[in-house]
Amino acid sequence: MNAQDFDRWVQASLNAFEAALDDLVPAGAPAGLGEAMRYAVLGGGKRLRPLLVLASCAAVGGDSFAAMRAACSVELIHAYSLVHDDMPCMDDDVMRRGKPTTHVAFGEAQAMLAGDAMQALAFEVLTPDTGIAPALQARLCSLLARSAGHDGMAGGQAIDLASIGKQLDEVTLRDMHRRKTGVLLQASVMMGAACGPASTQATQALADYGAALGLAFQVVDDILDVTQDSTVLGKTAGKDQDANKPTYVSVLGLEAARALAQQLRAEAKAALAATGLADVSHLSLLADSVVERDN
Fold first, then answer.
1. What is this structure's pTM?
2. How far apart are the first and last CA of the chain?
3. Cα Dmax for the chain
4. Is the domain defined by 3-292 classed in CATH 3.10.129.10?
5. Where are the domains positioned within the chain?
6. DSSP output for 151-212
């Protein structure tokens, strides 16, 4: 697949995804809650997690309706986590996706409620009355819940907050980032795979791909935090360094962090080669986009 074909696939997938998400996030939730929810999740972001769901589903020949619902649900979880992480009691950030953070735009209480509502909506989206078999609903909910909870995103954020001003070794840093960022990206891949008849071999190899990609994403994030400005990033640059948080750059150094990102990309592609699937080109090119991105 060439770059133009990939770009066309990305654009078509994102157009369908944005339309589906727009339909699912209610504008009419009471007392302005719907407005805050839509502000937080619509019309911004890289949408990497939904693309991973859709690409993984396509690779295994899965059900497109279930995959689109899964793509929306994982983005809702991601968006809720950003709303909460940006609040003054957590990372205290004022810019996200090139605009004021949700608590700046709507106040802290409304932002907290918007995050809560998006988290609940994510699981509502996965459990429609028709269109997704109950067993698949349960599998998708399990994958998403485990990635967002104490062993995943929430646990990673807890470690992150507890590590401010501390020196971490690479093993501990890797575990923190695996939980905080990597597991949800891996779950995106696995949710897409769950929508089709993936073999045990393919499922394990896709899990390995997701793990390598998830860590690569965070390594690149740490690199960009010290090499790009806020305008390019769409969020406050140098935030981790200013907050004295451990990162791959602070632990390994910039060049070693760059080398690690390349190594992880190679590991992700090796895992794809081990799937035995006929066409994993979308997933392979998404790995390239993660490592080569500038924001």
1. 0.95
2. 24
3. 51
4. no
5. 3-292
6. TTHHHHHHHHHHTTT----HHHHHHHHIIIIIHHHHHHHHHHHHTTT--HHHHHHHHHHHHH
